[in-house]
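Inputs:
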Amino acid sequence: MPVTEFNPDEIAEPRVVPLPVDPQLRRVQDDFIRKWGEMGAIWGINRTMAEIHALLYITGVPLCTDDVMDRLHISRGNSSMSLRALCDWGIIRRMHRRGERREYFESLSDVWEMFSIIAAERKRREMDPVLETIKNCIKALEPAQIGKLAKDDAVVRTRQRLDGMEEFMSVTNKVFQQFVGNAKSGLNKVVKVLLKAL
Amino acid sequence: MPVTEFNPDEIAEPRVVPLPVDPQLRRVQDDFIRKWGEMGAIWGINRTMAEIHALLYITGVPLCTDDVMDRLHISRGNSSMSLRALCDWGIIRRMHRRGERREYFESLSDVWEMFSIIAAERKRREMDPVLETIKNCIKALEPAQIGKLAKDDAVVRTRQRLDGMEEFMSVTNKVFQQFVGNAKSGLNKVVKVLLKAL
DNA sequence: CTATTGTTTCAGTAGTTACTGAACATCCAA
DNA sequence: TTGGATGTTCAGTAACTACTGAAACAATAG
């Protein structure tokens, strides 16, 4: 073996905050991370992003890009982009340590708050446009728009269906609103009210 | 142009129930279908399946495989598989017409009922396993399992996070349960209770 | 200024999911 | 019993998404 050969392991800096915790703890954390990632994937959130978030949440300690890379075995690029996306969502935060150049990231700790944030965003991005489309559809079928065709069987049926959907989405939206308006601890209360009332 | 050339358009059978309704109505329906498909895609439901469901829902009339194929420009295979999947979900139903071999499909008409069905299924498939994993994680960190390590800082933090998540998911699950238990019209009531209580 | 450390971006590609089209199965009417 | 109409399945492929690795960029220290 030539002396010039390079072994990155030998010159790796010791970690400032050694992540490789006790193996038992680590196994538990990994379980959680994996499952959280799977769930995310099903709900249309990219698996890796969900896993990064799970990691930050479960450890409860700020980690840097390299920590995330090492622990989840993903590339620097992926880490960087996913961390940024999570920041954009607002469920993790950037953190600077005095006297350190490196950036750290930490998860919000309140699950209710995170849920509120996500729910609000998804409502805005995904429900609102649909509701708007439905309202437009209803308008387009008003007698003023289509004249005597308004009495056509097919039109009547379609209008009924649109009305049903509109009612559902409006009510759902209001519930959403309530959940989201009552941030943090309030949320918890909201749910308890509901459970008692039933 | 050789006389042997074949033009499928010329021999196409006239439709038994001509789907091509009034163009104005059709435009409205298409809008709804497109938007519903987009939403489905975002929520992890395949776009085509969502579109087929939207079509059946919005027309409010039983359609056969060919109707679906023609209207959405998809292949027979795709139609067949997607329709089956929707039947499995339970939000559309097969329908036989006396004296006809061809099968028809129709959507449930009650949006609340459809929502209940979907919510129940997704809870069972996606939330329940996660909650179970979390419970297992909590167990694995009990002093009985890990001895004096239980007082380790990192372990304490992880346990706290797991507890937070467990509480959230348990409560969420109960709410889900309530929604789903009170099928159909009951659902509507549930929501009204919630809105009033706040 | 240059070296060092850390971050962002992105072209190319691996991996995944959705879809088609054709072969096959089934049923019914003639 | 045969042919046409309908329904199902699935291998192959198109379309899409996620990821890597490397280069460009930014900030700071010496």
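Residues 46-48, 74-78, 81, 101 of chain A lie near DNA strand D (CB under 10 Å from a C1'). Flag for discussion at group meeting.
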